[in-house]
Amino acid sequence: MIRKSDIDINELLLELDRNNRMERVALFIWGVLLYSISFTLFFSNNDIVTGGSAGLANIVNELCGMSMSLFIFLFSLLLLLIGYIALGKDMMIKTVFGVVLFPIFMQFSLIFPSIIDLSNSSMFLIVFFGGIFMGLGNGIIIRSGYSIGGFQTIYQILYKYFAISIGNSTLVINGILVLMGGWMFGITKVLYAIIGLYVASVVTDKVMLETSITKTFFIVTEKSKEINQYIVENLGRSATIMKARGGYSNDSKRILMCAMPTRDYFRAEEIMKTIDKDAFILILDTYEVYGGV
Fold this sequence. Notes:
2 domains, 4-stranded antiparallel β-sheet, alpha+beta, Alpha-Beta Plaits, single chain
């Protein structure tokens, strides 16, 4: 049983969003722009399907000639409505902006292949640098706290109702799309897509999201009850609370230990510092986590 604190965590989250909204929106816009340009210039322009709603749009465009930006908008809008029903308003509110912005930037990015001619470049270099820029854009989007929607909504629904991890669902769906792209454009394009996706994932996880996929927090705080409530109720994770004593002050203290994906840690760190600005927080890169209680 989680003891309720006197602090309204949801109100605290809303206040933090209001305070940092412009910074996060600017970060999100830059990330979506970078992602859109990299996909169009390096991948779709060379008939390489990398997965996601943009990859599916590439396939639909080849099959029936439908504009990729229009398909992305309609597809993401449909999933936004489904997500609103299945996941609730709070989960979808930060996706609305991305559903509108992503197709606009995808349409805008169509001018870049005519400005930057890569026709004489090595295909390996194209997908390698495409993966770098796509990973940077994706990492910036993640750090902003917003979402471009699309398949991300499906991943969240599968996780909520069927306990299928987002990583596994992403792997399966993107794998299917990449194979479909190979069926349409040839097996060589599949190999290049795999290289591009791998480079993009490495850049996202290692550069934008630090060096490990998991972080472990050790938090020495006077507000352990409030922080524990946030970890359990808002992050859907658990924490271990340990009794400790200050080596210098000899005062009794409490330490919270919690492991979470690196993708969540930016937000969690910000909230914890807001709940207790005097908290001592130690964050460690964690490469393997076993078991749990």
